[in-house]
Known about the structure:
By secondary structure, the protein is α/β, with parallel strands linked by helices. The protein is built from 20 helices and 12 strands. It has 4 domains: 160 residues, 3-Layer(aba) Sandwich (Rossmann fold); 117 residues, Alpha-Beta Complex (Glutamyl-tRNA Synthetase, domain 3), CATH 3.90.800.10; 47 residues; 85 residues, Arc Repressor Mutant, subunit A (Orthogonal Bundle). The strands form 5 sheets. Strands 1-2-3 form a 3-stranded parallel β-sheet. Strands 4-5-8 form a 3-stranded antiparallel β-sheet. Strands 6-7 form a two-stranded antiparallel sheet. Helix 6 crosses helix 7, helix 9 packs across helix 11 and helix 16 runs antiparallel to helix 20. The site of glutamic acid has 8 residues, from strand 9.
Amino acid sequence: MTTIRTRIAPSPTGFLHLGTARTALYCWAFAQHHKALGADAQFILRIEDTDEARSTEEAVVQIIEAMDWLEMKYDEGPFYQMKRMARYREVIAQMVANGTAYYCYTQPAELDAMREAQKARGEKPRYDGRWRPEAGKTLPQPPAGIRPVVRFKNPQGGDVVWEDMVKGQISISNDELDDLIIARPVSEEGAKTGETVGTPTYNFCVVVDDWDMRMTHVIRGDDHVNNTPRQINILRALGAPLPVYGHVPMILGPDGEKLSKRHGAVSVTQYRDEGYLVEAMINYLARLGWSHGDDELFTREQLTSWFDGKHLSRSPAQWDGAKLKWVNQHYMKLADDQRLSKLVTEQLTKRSITPDERLPAICALFKDRCETTQVLADWASAFYSTPQRNEADYTQHVTEAVKPAVAVLAAKLQNCEWNKAALANAVKETLTETGLKMPQLAMPVRVLLMGKAQTPSLDAVLELCGQKLSLERLAY
Ligand code: GLU
């Protein structure tokens, strides 16, 4: 049976941002796609928290919350790199023992001098391999009192070549690659207790994890493409199987710059808070950098059935907030009213408004005209608190001249049965009695009830407002 294992490996140095969410979606969808085809497929969450100074618990919580919101269920994890330090050190020790890694005692000042000299000779600055063991080479005596780093003995000559799922064949010459530091010097504390391997470095942890976690496909942002040849070399030195790599181009803001806070929300959960539906977010993110023919709107099920890792765009995607809104509006129309009602309640709670049993019907009536649940909550709040008045609409429609006609309608509503048909009839009778045309009466009444002239049909709005509130608002 085919085995497919993918992972998302966010660093908890900030919230799960849109780029990582999209990569996670691709990894998740790829695994789901193969699962549905009968493969043994898993998607894994790994928290890359080795940057202790910048990683926070709060970010971890938000990452997990975002994954939950996006309903990207992981089959394993979350795994935390900080909990795997002993394992990385164990592998480094093995590599030192078998000669695929070595201790390097070069001090920062020496490295600086080395680089300066190289630059002066017009060469590219790089570690010159002075502590690299070679057959027939005599190494210097390790200087006393210096705690060494561990370097990977990168192969010399030849190229690292891989077939990238997104970018096609990539080839990097080994001569471009330094002997990478894979462990920092042992700390003073560690030295006292006889430790021989310091803190492992980022690229190394990733390699051991991808190996131990048996990754078959590493799909990630193309900001990692430079790490890949190094990681491949280390995997080879470990005798580990190589995953297939896919490097997804980044997401740019509308101005063509890397997407950042300047462009608005960059964390996915902020979109949830601003009233976007999860199915819209999934649809939009998936389409941003991947395509299936001309399809713009598709379900999660369609995505997983189509997502075979092909048709990923090679060029950067551009964030388009207006398109996301359009996608969201599409799903708002389709959304179940009870569900919308729950989401709108969350929005209303933030405004200290407690809705009642009318809310699902309010959602049903207004959802077609709303881009987000936040906008739907704006409408709903008009039923529970004084509506925000559109001054231009008010001045135009709520005139002295129309006052008597509104009073006629109000009088009829005093004794009206409270259902749409009866209310429509009361409006009709008012028109006959006053000689006004529908818009001449409906517009001011809408503005009085909802604060603006563009609303769903008057009878439906009156019905939901209820008798007491309608009469209060019509008495102006
Ligand atoms: N931790 C990396 C990031 O947040 C991902 C590394 C990887 O996928 O290999 O960008």
